[in-house]
User: What shape does this take?
Amino acid sequence: RRCLVEAVVSPDFPALGRTVKGMQFRTRYNAAILSVHRAGEQGERKVGDMRLQVGDTLLMSTDQAFVDQYRSRRDFLLVSALNDSTPPDFHRAPRALAILALMVAAAAFELLSMLEAAFMAAGAMIMSRCVTVGRARTGINYSVLLVIGASFALGAAVAGTGLADGAATFLVNGIASPLIALAAIYFLTAMFTELITNNAAAVLMFTIAMATAEQLGVSPMPFVVAVMFGASAAFLTPIGYQTNLMVMGPGGYRLADYVRIGLPMSLIAFAVSIIVIPLIWQF
Assistant: This one.
């Protein structure tokens, strides 16, 4: 039932200038201070020995009642609970692992399709109380589903208009080696991923990869796997993937930082993928 809460000390805080230990903060507020940030920097002294000042930001372990009680009190200027900070309950972990194993087995042995197995596993998670209905509902990322749906429409348009065949013809024109075509597919997918979402890049390049394999008369699996890895190798730009953008502000990164670190990573991923993919998924 405990969660993490942030609070900012107000001028009306009753124990300004006193140490956390001396004012018995834990007993008074039923909250344990984990860290104190002052002027944007974390305090270097032990939390118990710090003397609280106006504007100090406290990160505390407490319960939801603290937020409800002190949100309108004058002890703190701002009180907010951190989302998803409640410690997980591992009592039902064996049930969840069993459901996961059954889902994978049902899909692997083709007893059910992956979609059917996933839906049944989601229902079993709710019925077994491994997850609440509310948490399951908030766990659905509707924006991602919308992007994926739009990407499939884009992929169908690329295939239906003949753009995929035209791009494949242009790509394999003068290329006799499937390995070179594989490298080109990977490279184009990685470049698209840096400019648009990885989902859209994968769907867009999938049709082109299939058409390329068909025109070369080889197995499409190496090209499909290259698209999969290329769509995941977004290291060059902050907009290449959500996590890249999430750390840009807090980390103080610039575009040049992504290029300096991301370019070697992209080249390593490219080289390893082009060498290993044909060894496992042969043409």
The chain has a mean pLDDT of 81. Strands lie at 2-9, 32-38, 41-42, 57-63, 76-81. The CA atoms of residues 247 and 253 lie 8 Å apart. The longest helix spans residues 255-280.
